[in-house]
Write a structure and sequence with these properties.
Helix content: 25-40%
Strand content: 25-35%
Largest sheet: 6 strands, mixed
CATH architecture of the largest domain: 3-Layer(aba) Sandwich
Radius of gyration: 21 Å
Strand order of the largest sheet: 6-7-8-3-9-10
Number of domains: 2
Number of strands: 14
CATH superfamily of the largest domain: P-loop containing nucleotide triphosphate hydrolases
Oligomer: single chain
CATH class of the largest domain: Alpha Beta
Length: 280
């Protein structure tokens, strides 16, 4: 579905360093990392909005450079909130947008308008940030896209609307023919819906695995300061210390017979501690 190989992009103060990953058909991949880590640059490179210095990208078995027009008719994408043409009505923007897609599905478009409670007679400037996201998602979903590439799609949505959107993502991939790649800083969303996790730090991929494998292979450990031996400290990815004790992230394989408190981490725990520590 999506293959990225050795993607590099040099900026004056940032380097996207040999990004490689695969997204199989019928799955959701969550792309996580701190602000400025390279998520948006990677997504824009896939879409040929940013021109990488080197690397190869295949989408739906096609080359993202040679076959760009054909690819973009078969994928849906949204980068940030829909802020284009703020004084134009939704209905007018859609009338222009639909002409670009051979597989435009008017019935599906109206279904999403109803689901998201979008009024086609409203101007973009009259929509809240959350409603603009919903409109962008509606356009991305209304031409039977085989791959969705979304940058922070749940940003600005209230918890109920976010939950509805995540349910929709699971519905979309249920037929096994559609995949979704989306970046987010709301890692709890990925706890609910992601199959794979791609984690980036300072322009480098530091985790690329299934969500379950990533979580199951790590553990949170905590205890009193007196229990923090040099051996344990050396094996930890990162830790936080206070006057009461310590808490940190460690690979589960390094836990032996220990009296320390051991807990299962969530994706936010893992992202935070990896960014506190090294690139283990």
């Amino acid at each position: 579905m999506l293959k990225v190989r050795n993607l590099c992009k040099q900026y004056p103060n940032f380097y996207l360093d040999n990004i490689s990953f695969d997204l199989p058909k019928g799955y959701i991949m969550g792309f996580i990392g701190m602000n400025g880590s390279g998520k948006t640059t990677t997504l824009k490179s896939i879409l040929n909005i940013v021109h990488p210095d080197s690397g190869n990208i295949q989408i739906l078995g096609l080359d993202n450079l040679k076959d760009e027009t054909q690819i973009k008719k078969r994928i849906g994408f949204m980068l940030g909130t829909f802020d284009y043409y703020p004084k134009t009505k939704i209905s007018k923007i859609t009338a222009i947008y639909r002409d670009f897609f051979d597989n435009w599905d008017e019935e599906k478009y109206n279904l999403y308008l109803h689901r998201f409670k979008l009024d086609p007679n409203k101007k973009i400037s009259e929509l809240s940030a959350g409603m603009r996201v919903k409109y962008g998602i509606t356009l991305a979903l209304s031409h039977n896209a085989e791959l969705l590439i979304l940058d922070e799609p749940t940003s600005g949505l209230d918890p109920l609307a976010r939950d509805d959107l995540l349910d929709l993502f699971r519905e979309i991939i249920a037929d096994g023919n559609t995949s979704i790649l989306f970046s987010t800083h709301i890692t709890s969303d990925l706890d609910k819906c992601a199959d794979y996790i791609l984690m980036i730090k300072n322009g480098k991929i530091i985790q690329n695995t299934t969500k379950d494998e990533l979580i199951d292979s790590h553990a949170l450990i905590s205890g009193k300061k007196s229990e923090l031996t040099d051996e344990i400290k050396a094996k930890m990815i990162a830790l936080k210390q206070s006057s009461l004790g310590f808490k940190g992230l460690i690979k589960r394989e390094f836990i032996k017979n220990s009296d320390l408190v051991i807990e299962k981490p969530n994706l936010e725990d893992i992202m935070i501690f990896y960014n506190l520590g090294g690139n283990q």
